[in-house]
Structures are given as structure tokens and as C-alpha cells.
Design goal:
The chain has 20 helices and ten strands. It is of the alpha/beta class. Bound molecules: adenosine-5'-triphosphate. InterPro entries: AAA+_ATPase, ABC1_TM_dom, ABC1_TM_sf, ABC_transporter-like_ATP-bd, ABC_transporter-like_CS, P-loop_NTPase, Type_1_exporter. It is found in: Cell membrane.
């Protein structure tokens, strides 16, 4: 129900349109029901079941059904007497036609007003979900699979649109029609109405039971779809490996397994869903048959006029479609709520890293960063990956992290901009815990050049600017020049406006790296976090990248994660990590002289080159 309340919350943003839609629906209902009362007196007079009424009733009250009937009969009699039966019939038909014309006009108006509401809610839900995803702590993304998230933002939201929003119209329209027609039925024959109503409740309970199962199946289906998206995404990213290992058949087999399982669940869902229409129709017809049987007996026994019974059936006919639509709406809502729950799950995830009350602002680094006895584990069920790490990164100095793979270098780098918080110990900036600063101010202090050049499907210009405001084209060009990127950029077909494709795949590895360096230069960060690229570049490209990095680092505070030890010889301090612990620290020459872990690493690398 919580998810449904949230949906109503989204609906509240469109109050005006929803009100217009509801008003249109009420008018639709009025014009649907208004034709019914005309039938009875007309049929009675036409078939001469009652004597023409020549005198109007003394008093007409809306609480006195008989007086209304008498008044209607009087008008009808007068009309038939003066205009003749045929003309009267033509008028009644004309009136019915007109009422249906208005009914449909207002029905369309209601749909017209609801369309922007439906599409608007889908847009809001997606925007909200996307913005929330970007806010979530990094830890979430390692545990949740990407495909699962993708399917929530695409197919689950779509499912909400097609299942729930699609039937909002029905929810806002049909009850009015049902209430109107039911009101007329009660006035005409309370006993018959109670009889019909009992049958309808029974039908509703049967349909409701099947609907509940649908919600459960829908959740399973969406999860399986998430697995399929995940697998596809993973395979597209690893195509090169799949091809080179000749693993196409193996991967296709694994994919087929998932796909089969999805199909299996889908079939079960479709079987249930498709049950709704035949079941509803059969139960509807059963109700009609019972009504005919029960009502005709009343007519035969003389306790009801045939014309009353016919107009009752007409009113009942008016209820069938809306009731059918409502039951279909119930099915769809159950299906959609499964999807909405999954969207909710993500929206309800709390963001663990948020600003403290009264958080400090900061627009420059004054003394630098310090780590004190920092330990870290990614989650409660994984082992600690950093133990008791302490070191300083003073302003203007360069500290390099070295050590074997999995030592914890990248993890330390992720703790500084608070992608994660330490499990114990503290990290301070200018003497204050990182958690005391406004997150945005803190992160603005850092420029990150990661191992993998992270670029987006956009122009070169936008990839360099990337979120910065008030930047001039001259500044962008200057940054590109410093990063040794300007020349290759101007050689592309549209220069700075060239689109670089998904993740920058229209560029070479070295070009991608130089773009990310230009991006970091433009931000002019106080502290640079540099995760050296491991992928080998050709000599010329490597020279251009190294040169750009040197220019970027000049005079800046920097934490370098060194993969090629030759690049960190000038660092002020080199910290050597092994399985999460600091095993050695000092300058390049000092460490070499000691002949410990660092010199072994250097020797190992020299042998490999
Ligand atoms: N998201 C994660 N969830 C759980 N464990 C992780 C996660 N990321 C890294 N680890 C683990 O943390 C340890 C340190 O990893 P980290 O990436 O910091 O090492 P590294 O020194 O940067 O390695 P490399 O030089 O290979 O990049 C490793 O044992 C790794 O398995």
C-alpha cells in the first residue's frame, strides 16, 4: 500500500489535470445514466401498459420516485398526444443519441486530460529514480547488479505506466457510472438490485484472488528480466574476451538458460492474466442469466412491470462494462504494483553518506590530509581490506602508493573523496574529519584521473567541461592544450563538437586519457588523485600522456597509485602496501637502499619489462 500512496503523491503534482479528468468523468457518468429513466415511461406508454396520464401530479419530489414517474408519464402522454407516437419516438431516440454524444465527448476529454498525467508520472518516476541512483553510496553498486538497476529504470517504470497508469482512467470513471446506474437500479427494484449486487460481489472476490497471484508472478518476471539485461550488458562489455576465447557457444548457452527461465515464468503469468477475460465474461453472463431468471419470475408473478424489468436490465447493462473494466484494472494494478515495489526498493534505499547538520564549507585546502589508524571493509560479510593505515598527504606534496595487486591502493584513494567512509580510524582535511564537511565542497577539492578513462557519449567539449559551470571555450581549449589534446581534437571532423561515441570508443586509448587529464586540469583541483593507467600505450602516446600528467601535477598535492614504479621516483613519500597493511615507507632512494619490499617490486618490474 505504501507504493500506492507514493503513486498518489506523484498524482498530486497534477492536481489541476486530475480534477479536470474527474469532472469530465462525472459528466460522462451523468450522460451515461441520464438516458435510462427515459426508457421506462416511454416503453410503458408505447406498449400501452399504462393509461395515458392527463393530469400532472400535485407534487413532485426527488425523494418520491412515484411522483417523478407520474410527472414523466404526464409529459410523455402529452407529448405523444400532441406530436404522435412516431415523432415522440424520434425525439426520444434523438435525446438518447445526444446524451451518448455528450457522454463520449466528455469521455474523450477525460482521456485527453489524463494523458499528460500518465506520461508525466512516468517521467517523474524515472527522473527521481535516476537522481536517487546517482546519490547512492558506491557500496550499493558493487552488490546490486547493474542490469537489475537498468531494468528497474526501464522496464519496471514502463510496467507501472502500462499497468497502473493505463487503468487510472477506469478508476476515475467507472465508479461514477456504476454508482449512477446502481442508484437507478435501487430506485427501480431494491430486491433485484440486492440480488445482482450479491452476484457481483461474488464475482469480485473470485477475480481478486487471481489478481493477487498476478502481483507475485510479476515480481518474479521483472527480476528475471533484470538478469537478462545484466547478462547482455556484461557480454557486450566483454565481447573481445568472449570472441578471443571462442566462448560464444558457452555464453549463448548460459544466456539461453536465463531466457528459458524467464519464458517459463512469463507463460505462467500470461496463463493467469489471460484467465481474467474469459473468467469475467463467464461470470458476467452467469449473472445476466440468473438476473433474467429471477426478474422474469417477478414479472410473471405480477410483482414487477415488464417495462420496469427492461429498463432495469438496461441500467444493469450500463454497469457491466464499467465493472468489467474495474476488474481488469484490478488485475493490472496488481501486476503494476509488483513493478512499483521494485522501483520503491531503490527509492527507499537510504544514502549512507550525507551532509551532517551544520557541515563545514571549504573552498581551498590549507594544510592537507591525514589518515589515522584507518581500517576498512566493504561490507559486513567481506573481510577487512585495510588495517591500521596512517599517513599524511601535506599540501603541495606528492605521495605514491605502491604494492602488489589487491593491496588496497584504490580503496585508499576512494576513501579521500568519501566514496566510502572508513570502518574505523579517521581521515582529516585541514584538521577536521572529512565527515564534517559539506560533501560537495569536499569533492570539489579533488580531481580524479582514473585508470580507465571514463568518458560519456557526448561531444569532446562537454566531456571536458563535464558539469562545471561558467567555463569559457578559451579555458576549455587551454586545458586541452596543457593536456596535449588540442591537436588531435582539432583534427577530428567537428573539432571540440565531435561526438566521441559510447565511453569514448571513437578515440584511441591515449586520446581518451588525455581528455580525462584535460578535464582534471580544467577543474583546477587542490588535490589530485591519480590512478595510473595500466594499459600499455605506444611510446609516442605514452610520452604525450606522461607529459600531460607532469603538467597537471605541477605544484599540486597529489596521491598517485603507481603501477609503473618508474613514474614515482620523484614522489615525496612512497607507501608500500601489502594485503591492506603498510609494509614500508620512504623515498625512492631510501627504499631502494633498504632492499625490502619496494626494491623487490622494482626488481620484479625491471625483469618483466
Ligand atoms: N567493491 C568491493 N567489494 C568488496 N571487496 C572489494 C571491492 N573492491 C575491492 N575489493 C577488495 O579489496 C582489496 C583491495 O582492493 P584494491 O582495488 O584497493 O587493491 P589495489 O591495490 O588497488 O589493486 P590493483 O593494483 O590490482 O588495482 C582486494 O582484496 C579486493 O578484492
Amino acid at each position: 500500500m505504501n507504493s500506492f500512496r507514493r503513486l498518489l503523491g506523484y498524482l498530486a503534482n497534477y492536481r489541476g489535470l486530475v480534477t479536470l479528468a474527474i469532472v469530465s468523468n462525472v459528466l460522462t457518468a451523468i450522460f451515461t445514466v441520464v438516458a435510462i429513466p427515459l426508457f421506462q415511461p416511454f416503453l410503458e406508454l408505447l406498449f400501452e401498459q399504462v393509461e395515458p396520464v392527463t393530469e400532472a401530479p400535485a407534487e413532485v419530489s426527488i425523494f418520491d420516485v412515484e411522483s417523478i414517474g407520474q410527472q414523466a408519464n404526464f409529459w410523455m402522454s402529452e407529448f405523444i398526444a400532441t406530436a404522435g407516437k412516431e415523432t415522440a419516438l424520434a425525439w426520444v431516440c434523438g435525446f438518447i443519441l445526444l446524451s451518448f454524444l455528450f457522454k463520449n465527448l466528455f469521455r474523450y476529454a477525460a482521456l485527453f486530460f489524463m494523458s499528460p498525467v500518465r506520461s508525466g508520472i512516468v517521467r517523474d518516476l524515472r527522473n527521481h529514480l535516476y537522481a536517487h541512483l546517482l546519490q547512492l553510496p558506491m557500496g550499493y553498486f558493487t552488490e546490486e547488479r547493474k542490469g537489475n538497476l537498468l531494468s528497474r529504470i526501464t522496464s519496471d517504470v514502463q510496467e507501472v505506466e502500462s499497468s497502473i497508469l493505463n487503468v487510472l482512467e477506469a478508476i476515475f470513471r467507472e465508479p461514477f457510472i456504476i454508482v449512477g446506474a446502481l442508484g437507478y437500479m435501487i430506485i427501480t427494484s431494491p430486491s433485484l438490485t440486492v440480488f445482482v449486487f450479491g452476484l457481483m460481489i461474488f464475482t469480485g472476490v473470485v477475480i481478486g484472488g487471481v489478481g493477487k497471484q498476478l502481483k507475485r508472478s510479476s515480481t518474479v518476471i521483472q527480476e528475471k528480466l533484470g538478469d537478462i539485461v545484466s547478462r547482455t550488458e556484461e557480454s557486450l562489455g566483454g565481447l573481445r574476451i568472449i570472441k578471443s576465447f571462442g566462448a560464444e557457444k558457452y555464453q549463448a548457452g548460459r544466456f539461453a538458460e536465463l531466457n528459458d527461465s524467464y519464458r517459463h515464468s512469463l507463460v505462467r503469468l500470461l496463463w493467469r492474466r489471460d484467465l481474467s477475460s474469459p473468467l469475467t465474461e463467464f461470470l458476467g453472463i452467469a449473472t445476466v442469466a440468473l438476473l433474467l431468471w429471477y426478474g422474469s419470475r417477478e414479472v410473471f408473478s405480477g410483482s414487477m412491470e415488464a417495462s420496469t424489468f427492461i429498463s432495469f436490465i438496461f441500467a444493469f447493462y450500463m454497469v457491466i462494462d464499467p465493472a468489467k473494466n474495474l476488474s481488469k484494472a484490478w488485475y493490472n494494478i496488481q501486476k503494476g504494483l509488483g513493478a512499483l515495489d521494485r522501483v520503491e526498493e531503490v527509492l527507499d534505499l537510504p544514502n549512507a553518506i550525507v551532509d551532517n547538520q551544520g557541515a563545514r564549507t571549504r573552498d581551498a585546502v590549507e594544510t592537507g590530509l591525514s589518515l589515522r589508524s584507518v581500517s576498512f571493509q566493504y561490507s559486513n560479510h567481506t573481510p577487512e581490506v585495510l588495517y591500521d593505515i596512517s599517513f599524511d598527504l601535506p599540501k603541495g606534496k606528492v605521495v605514491a602508493l605502491a604494492g602488489g595487486s589487491g593491496g588496497g591502493k584504490s580503496t585508499i584513494a576512494d576513501l579521500l573523496p568519501r566514496f566510502y567512509d572508513p570502518t574505523s580510524g579517521s581521515i582529516t582535511l585541514d584538521g577536521h574529519d572529512l565527515r564534517d564537511y559539506r560533501l560537495k565542497d569536499l569533492r570539489d577539492r579533488f580531481g580524479i584521473v582514473s585508470q580507465e578513462a571514463i568518458l560519456f557519449n557526448d561531444t569532446i567539449y562537454n566531456n571536458i567541461v563535464f558539469g562545471l559551470e561558467n567555463v569559457t571555450p578559451d579555458q576549455v581549449e587551454e586545458a586541452a592544450r596543457v593536456a596535449n589534446a588540442h591537436d588531435f581534437i582539432t583534427a577530428t571532423p567537428a573539432g571540440y563538437q565531435t561526438n566521441i561515441g559510447d565511453r569514448g570508443n571513437k578515440l584511441s586509448g591515449g586520446q581518451r586519457q588525455r581528455l580525462t587529464i584535460a578535464r582534471a586540469i580544467l577543474r583546477n583541483p587542490d588535490v589530485l588523485i591519480l590512478d595510473e593507467a595500466t594499459s600499455a600505450l605506444d611510446a609516442e602516446s605514452e610520452r604525450l600522456v606522461q607529459d600531460a600528467l607532469q603538467k597537471l601535477m605541477a605544484g599540486r598535492t597529489a596521491l598517485i597509485i603507481a603501477h609503473r614504479l618508474s613514474t614515482i621516483q620523484n614522489a615525496d613519500e612512497i607507501i608500500v602496501l601489502d594485503r591492506g597493511r603498510i609494509v614500508e615507507r620512504g623515498t625512492h632512494l631510501g627504499l631502494l637502499g633498504r632492499g625490502g619490499a619496494y626494491s623487490k617490486l622494482v626488481a620484479l618490474q625491471a625483469a618483466n619489462e
